[in-house]
Amino acid sequence: MIDNPFNSEIFKNIWLKHFNEGNEPFTIKSIIGADFYKSRFPGLWVNVGRTHTKGVYYEFEEKNKRLSGKSCLIFDVPTYFDCPSTKGGGRAVKRVRQYPGFLIELEKFADLAGFMKEQFGKSSRYKLKKYRKKLEQSFDINVKMYTGNMDKSEYDHIFDCFRELLEKRFSDKEEYNNNLDAQEWGFFKEVVYPMLLNQQAGLFVIFDDKKPIAVTLNYFSKDIIFDAITVFDIDYFKFHLGSVNIMYLIDWGITNRFSILDFSKGYFDYKTRWCTKKYDFEYHLVYDKTSIKSTTIAILLQKYFRLKQYLREKDINKLKNRIHFLFSKKEPQTKNLSPNYNTKFEEFDNKELELEHIPEYGPKINKIVFEFLYLFGERSKEVKLFRVLEDDNLLVLKGKNNTKIIALNEKVENILKP
């Protein structure tokens, strides 16, 4: 039996509160490890948690094999969980592949260096180490996994920053993210804190000084880290913050003796690059094959989910998300806020030009500042900005060891506003 955080009383009770009006779960004696609620679909029972879990493990009770005509739908069963097959009693299971899954077998490696050597070639390892070094060189980076103990006010602050980063990221991508829906986000915010205190969940946070710039929501079993939602500040994209975040998390997982880091369901390029094992998420239709009604329900749902998978493989879901995003926009988006500029920084040694110090500036100028930091190895806290009074399209950046000038395609005053 896998120690599954999604079968905990905390997770189940808060999920039922948000998505089933707080009704009590229903236990089917023939199935161990999953509780159910009555679906609107006649004759169908669905596992508590539905698609909000990151993997459900269940077993069959051998002493009580009968389903008594019931049809049960269990979402998101990872194939590597190896849920046991049915044995008699009229029970049967139809398995429908839905999403690809990806994981890292942490138990195979003694440390991060060992993983990197096994997973990447020499050139890729060099680049990834460079990204991490440049990030730590340019900013006051510190990393923390919050689990087991966390002040509620700090939790609320981190979670609010978490949402802001997600909104910023998906606004930039012009994609809809269902996690940001009020009902879903309310569920996550309420369920994670008590699970965190109980060491069944954690928030892995990268800080630039005191500002969260990457947040990963994790759930924990005894041996598995489930990466549920992860996001990083797109302003730090030049430093490949997403990849650096994964390296930090792998390091933490190996150090704390976890066997698996599970990236969960859904295809992304970074998952295929970092994973050591691929698997599938399946929907399991458990039914009573002695019942015509139960068998019919299972067959119909199997055809339905196969059709959904076919459409998903044809990228229909991406079109759906794009349309949903366009119709859900409530205010102007933040995409393309960065100014156009000549990407070639020039040496600045013209002492005749009159400069004016810029003490504060808005987010539109971050792309230029971060480019400067990345190229010249300066530290963020030591960089000062100046405008050239004779030409308001010129910007001067001065670090500890470098002073550069760059030409913008718009006036400096336009990009200083928040």
Automatic annotation (TrEMBL):
It comes from the Bacteria. The keyword Transferase applies. Residues 123-271 form the BioF2-like acetyltransferase domain. It holds the Pfam family Acetyltransf_6. GO terms for molecular function: transferase activity. Signal peptide: none annotated. The keyword Hydrolase does not apply. This is GNAT family N-acetyltransferase.
